[in-house]
Description:
Layout: H1 2-11, H2 16-25, H3 32-40, H4 47-57, H5 62-65
Amino acid sequence: MGENLKKLRKKYGLSQEKLCAELQRRSCDIGRTTYEKYESGELNIRISVLIQLKKIYNCKYDDFFAGLDPDEKTP
């Protein structure tokens, strides 16, 4: 999932710092070090953060989980 988080962030041209500032503006108390751990897979992301990321990126939840299910068939 971390790789998907990183791809979305880069797609929108955001640094980890800018993304964390936007998340904090939306009442998610996330520092860059914590977010870095989400992207590296060291820490599981909180659902409250995932909800706000979905709003920031205007994407589907599937975008966060793409490629994680080995049984999932790609179109």
